[in-house]
Amino acid sequence: MGYAGARVGPPRIDEQDHQLRLHIPVVEGPQQRLVKLDLVGIVKLDAAKLRQALPLKAGGPFHPVLLEQTLTAIRNFYGEAGYLQAQVSAAEDWNTPHTLVDVTIQVLEGPRRLVDQVIVRGNQATRTDAILRSLGIKSGDPIGQSRPYQLESNLYRLGIFSRVDVNLTGSGLDSAERDLVVQVEEGKYKSLGYGAGYDSEEKLRGLLSFSDNDIGGEADSLRLDLRGSSLDKRFSLFFNQPFISQYSLPLNSTLFYFDTREVSFRVRRTGARTEAVKTVSHTRYSLALDYRVVRLMVDPGEGGMTAQREGTARNTLARFRAEYARHAGEREYEEFVAQIRERSPQFREWWDEHWIKDRILSKLDPSRIGARSESAAAAAPPELRAKLSSKTAEES
After folding, report:
1. Closest to 35 (Cα-Cα) out of 2, 68, 6
2. How many CA atoms lie within 13 Å of 144's alpha carbon, on the beta-carbon side?
3. pLDDT tens digits for 89-136?
4. Are residues 204 and 256 in the same domain?
5. Contact indicator for 23, 13 with CB cutoff of 8 Å
6. Contact predicate 348/396, CB 8 Å
7. Are residues 143 and 46 located together in one domain of the fold?
8. What is the 3 state secondary structure string of 18-49?
9. Cβ–Cβ contacts within 10 Å for residue 189, how many?
10. What is the pLDDT confidence band of residue 306, given thresholds at 50, 70 and 90?
11. Together in a domain, 181 and 197
12. Residue 388 in contact with residue 323, Cβ under 8 Å?
């Protein structure tokens, strides 16, 4: 706060009526303020941007700690930009009461450290050009004091390497150029998983999974999941590319197939999705193509509509109505309901009853439908909502 001459203490303890009171005297003294802050010698960096990030501000309080923090901040800015030999010093000009000060910060920038060659060692299955693309640095680029750690992090994120070391070697002390040596050690980037089980409802279950984080040595990753039982079959394939050709533009692709059986209906879902992602500064941009098909099939089984199946159908319809209430008026939902009403007399009858899962088969007060619909929708998981919609087609 600028009170560099403030004095605190000594503390005094008083006892009164079996109570202790602690007194700490504070003498603030005069406040010291910064009148003007001059930055001299800054050529290679943006002085206006640098000034905004400094702890010391013209017109604000002055304290030796703030000045030291300001000098450290300037050194760090230069160090991150590759000027590791930059020298920063400050001169103070005080008024007579020693309450106002002008500060001049002098910077000698020095040479900038640049990358001469990028040398990759230790890779066996992974192609060198794939590693260079993932590093994101090339010959002639400046390299700051924390940049090697960022480069190591870039390679670790690929999920291929168990060890990554980035070091600078090469030229003598009088040269600003350094060779960047990247030493890697490939880990287990392939995995295979499998399993089997049995229960009384789904009978025999099985699963198989496979992943490879270095397809063709290009650092592309693939994951395959297969799961199946008498009631449920699932297939999903994920393929991720950190680069499209020579461009740093990650592309993530997904292909899936789900086939689920319930008491009286079956849902089959297939789809694919491809998304390109680019992060600029702190903003993430993406472009995606999404294709999905949901096929709903009725399977009333032997004996037609039993009491159990009717209960399942009514519960499904109730949950769908709750979801519909949240999207009333939307074209897709209105068209879907109109089609099912036309194809299924049973659906039309139950739909006109405004029946919601609340142990009631009679009509509800229309003013309460929205509230109950919201409650039921909140309780329904996303996957179940698709099943709800499918069940409404049961009578078609």
Report:
1. 2
2. 11
3. 999 999 888 889 999 999 999 999 999 999 999 999 999 989 998 888
4. yes
5. yes
6. no
7. no
8. CEEEEECCEECCCCCEEEEEEEECCCCCCHHH
9. 19
10. low
11. no
12. yes
C-alpha pair distances (Å), 176 with each of 139, 149, 150, 356, 387: 13, 20, 21, 75, 66
More confident position, 16 or 186 = 186
Residue 2 included in any domain: no
**Containing structural domain, residue 288:** 190-298
pLDDT, tens digit, 9 for 90 and up, residues 218-250: 889 999 999 998 888 999 999 998 888 777 788
Q: How far is CA 114 from the centre of its chain?
A: 32
Task: Judge whether 1 lies within some domain.
Answer: no
Among residues 151, 186, 221, which one ends one of the domains? 186
Which residue reads 């002085």 in tokens?
47
- Structural domain includes residue 260: yes
Tell whether 292 and 323 lie within a shared domain: no
* pTM of the full structure: 0.61
- Asked whether the beta carbons of 24 and 9 are under 8 A apart, the reply is yes
Name the residue with tokens 């010093």: 89
> What is the tens place of the pLDDT at every residue in 321-357?
887 888 778 877 787 788 778 877 777 888 887 654 4
Residue 340's beta-bridge partner residues?
none
Q: Residue 157 sits in a domain of what CATH number? A: 3.10.20.310
- Upper half-sphere CA count for residue 94 (Cβ side, 13 Å): 8
Q: Quick one: how far is CA 268 from the chain centroid?
A: 31
Rounded Cα–Cα distance for residues 314 and 349 (Å):
11
Statement to judge: residues 314 and 330 lie in one domain = yes
Residues 208 and 249 in one domain: yes
Q: Is residue 172 a part of any domain in this protein?
A: yes
pLDDT at residue 272 above 70? yes
- Asked if 230 and 214 sit in the same domain, the reply is yes
Question: What total number of domains does the chain contain?
Answer: 4
Final residue of a structural domain among 298, 327, 356: 298
- Give the CA angle between residues 316, 317, 323 to the nearest 5°: 95
C-beta of residue 234 within 8 angstroms of C-beta of residue 228? yes
In this structure, the answer to whether residues 122 and 148 fall within a common structural domain is: yes
Q: What are phi and psi of 342, to 5 degrees?
A: -70, -35
Mean pLDDT, the chain, integer: 81
Say if residues 162 and 183 touch (Cβ distance below 8 Å).
Answer: no
Q: What are phi and psi of 15, to 5 degrees?
A: -110, 125
At residue 159 the predicted structure's pLDDT band, cuts being 50, 70 and 90, is: confident
The pLDDT score that the predictor gives to residue 83 is 92
Q: How many other β-carbons are positioned within 10 Å of the β-carbon of residue 337? A: 19
- Beta strands 100-108 and 33-40 are parallel
